[in-house]
Structure formats: structure tokens, C-alpha cells
Amino acid sequence: MTVLLSLASARALQRVGGRARSLCGRGATVAPEAETAPAPAPSAYVVPKMEEVVSLCKKRGFVFGSSEIYNGFNGFYDYGPLGSELKRNIKERWWRDMVRDDASAASTSSIIAGQDLGAAHVGGFSDPMVDDKTTKKRYRADQLFYAELACDDGSSLGCVTVFESEDTEGDAYRAGKKLAKKAGKTLSRPLVLKCLEDAADEDRPRIPPPDAPDRPGDLTAPRDFNLMFQTSVGAAEDNSAAAYLRPETAQGIFVNFKNVASTARGFKLPYGIGQIGKAFRNEITPRNFIFRSREFEQMEIEYFLPPGDDAWRARARAVDRRLPGLARAPGHRRARSFDLKQHTDASGKSLEYFDDGTKEKYLPQVIEPSIGVDRLFLAVVCSAFEEDEVNGEKRSVLKFHPAMAPVKVAILPLVKKDAGINDIAAALYGDLKKRYNCQLDAAGNIGRRYRRQDEIGTPLCVTVDFDSLDDGAVTVRDRDTTDQVRLKIEDVALRHQARRGR
């Protein structure tokens, strides 16, 4: 029907020429490269560093640090135009796959009464923390690892402490090697790493802070730190007014289980209740950009099942892996009936389900696929990020799957001042924007505009040039290969017909 319909396909053809010919079938021919650029070399691919991802996200309007004009607010982030669009694509895809005929939607309050949250696991939202006695820096004990530094001559240099990473043992060895070199000794390997949270009392006087190897014993013992943001509701400041910003979206679903069960048409187990919403955790050490932040968004669904029914486990796994553009996706966790039982005991109100088929009353068991929107956003961006070379020039490109791309197609008038070219571009843009998120980009030379669109992940660029005035065709360029084809304008977008009176 139209070349751009391929954008919604889960497995779009890899080359724009193939897309055009298979969908248009009108003898589209490959146009000469406007940039005379070869296809990018696959060997040029590099794994992105976090600072490269952060820089691109800010530069192109995906993610900004919150309150930047006031020097920032650590652990909080704002999403710009492209970031908001990418988040919407992620959420819509999840919602389409998860909240179907056998599930209902919910949208519950972000502020939860203290007794409500306490009934479930208010004590579970805490992390073991340690403090540097000298600098007063605070660290999560479960993210620090220490190791004994044994030397080849049988002596010991004490302990070294490092942060958990992809190569924790390597980080510890490199830090210890520096100490050994300073002491004129050779460090033995491998090192035996232990989590600081599990350190024995007799080991603590020998364990230094992670950034001060010369200060052994300068860390406090681990103690629990509550991760929840507490607030009060109403004018009173007593315990009855205590409330929390929810640390997860699940509890609102559990406390509304009976409400949904009694009001949703066709409610019968197995059945799911899903919602997308904000959650808040007072992380002491937010890190890795938006991977661990204090305000985040969750996509969560609770599958309520009869005891012993594992049929939805397979479906939960399958749906978790459907997001385009990711090699793998998070799985799910089994919660059994813990939350429903805790809320039943605390409230004194039964959350049991009466099964009309078996005439039994029971607390359902639960399978809980939960995915963080922000973490998934970061995974999609990192998976899409590549660097290659075109005409000897380094190119940063986000190779989003078309279904995820914030901008689906860019319309590029070759010159800014030609009325005929701009009229065609405006008309084409007006057609396409009714179905896709598009950009009309006329600023800068054509090569620079291609690079700009590549960097934000736009799958296709449509260039209107002087030949378009004569042959009624445009050039369609593929982001990934830089291949181009010449297509008739009517093949690029089907004209919308007026439907008045129909």
C-alpha cells in the first residue's frame, strides 16, 4: 500500500530498495547516492561508553538532568521531545502485548497510606548502607566488594575495596597491583572477593573505603536505610497522617484486586491487572545515568492464577521478549500469594476469590512481569547506538527498530528557498504526519541533515529535489545502509481522501 507501512513491520526488510520494491511493486530504481557514500563498514561498530550515550541523549533532546538551570538535582531526569516519544513507543508496545482480552487496566494513586504499604513489605524497601567515617560519604554495602591482597612472598598488603562492576575482580587486582608496586612486591592472583555486606566483624578493621586504601577500618558497620520517600497527608503531623510515595506500582493493584474482580466484565482466573506509572525510591547512590534513579516509571502486570496453574508462566516469558530492538529482555518473578495474604491479614478484609467453576474460595497465586520503562529505554538506546564511517567521516547512529524510532521519517527539501520544492515537501509532510511522527528538516546542507537524522535514529529520509518538480518523484534514503531509491510521490504516502458524508 505504501513504502512506509514497512516501518510498522516487526521484521522490516533490511535495505530500502527491498522495502520499496516489495511494497510498491512499480519498478522503483536505485538512485545515485547524493553523498556518494558506501555502506557503513560493520567492523567499525564499537560498544558505547556511558558518557557517549549520556552526551548524545542530552545533545539530541532525549534526556536532560532535572533542574539543570539550578545546577541539577541528582538522581532525577527529564525527558525531552525525542525521549518522550521513545518512552511512548515502549509503553504502547508493552500495553498492546500485555493488557489484552484476559487483562484489565488500572491506574492507582502514587501516594500510599503508611498502613497500606506496611502491610506488604515496608521493611523490604531498605538497603544496607555504610559510611566513610572521615569523608561522611555513604555507600551501599551490597555494591562494595573487598579482597585480601596476598603477595608472592607470602606477605599481605591488607585489603582493597572496589565497587561492583562488570569486571569487579579485575578492578580489585588493578587497584591492589598499584599498592604492591609501591611496596616493591608482586601481587598474587586470583583474588578472593567478598561482599562488604557479608564481612565478618573481625575483618572490618582491615577493610578501607573504596577511594581510600590507606585508611583501613574507616567504614561503619552496615545498617538498613529506608528507601521510601515519606510524606504526610492533611494538616496533622501525627502518625495517622503518615504516607509514602509508592516504591512500586504493584501494591495499588493488590489492594484493588477485589474491586477489579467485581467490576470487570468477564473476570475469570487466570486474569491480569496491569498499569504503567511512576514509582519513587530514595536511592543513596543513583548511578549509571537513568539505570538507577530516584523517580522512575514501571510497566507492571499482576497475573492472578488458581493455585497450581502454571499456564501463564510461558506467556509471561514470551511477551517479555517481544520488544523490538533488544536481543534479550527481563523475565518475571513468582510472588505466590504473599502480597494478597499480607493485605488480608493487615486490613481484616478477605481478598479471596470465589471460583464459579470449582465452587472454591482461595487466594490466587501471582506471576508478576515487571519492567522499568527508564531502564528499558536505556537498554534500547544502548542496543541501537553504533559508530561507523561514511566518506571518511565518523558517524554516530541510533539504529532503532522502526517500531521504536521516535521519528519515523524526515522530509528534507533540498534547498530552502525554492517555492516549488518546499510546496511538495510541505504537502508530503502533511500527509505523513497523520500516520507517523515526522520531521520537516530544511536547515543546513543535505549531508549534515542526514547525519542529524541518523543520530536520532530516523529510519528513512525523503529528499525533495529539483528533479521532483519534473518527474514527481523523491529520493528515499535508508538510515542503516545509506542506500537510496527514487520513488513516485504517490508511492511514498497514500493521499488521504475526505470522508465527509460517509
TrEMBL record:
Where is the sequence biased in composition, kind Basic and acidic residues?
A: 202-217
Renumbered to this chain, region (Disordered) spans 199-219
Aminoacyl-transfer RNA synthetases class-II family profile domain location is 190-402
User: Entry's InterPro entries?
Assistant: aa-tRNA-synth_II, aa-tRNA-synth_II/BPL/LPL, Anticodon-bd, Anticodon-bd_dom_sf, Gly-tRNA_synthase/POLG2
Q: Which domain of life is it from?
A: Eukaryota
Q: Which SUPFAM superfamilies match?
A: Class II aaRS ABD-related, Class II aaRS and biotin synthetases
Give start-end ranges for the coiled-coil region(s).
none
Protein name (Swiss-Prot/TrEMBL): Glycyl-tRNA synthetase
User: What is the species listed in this Swiss-Prot or TrEMBL entry?
Assistant: Aureococcus anophagefferens
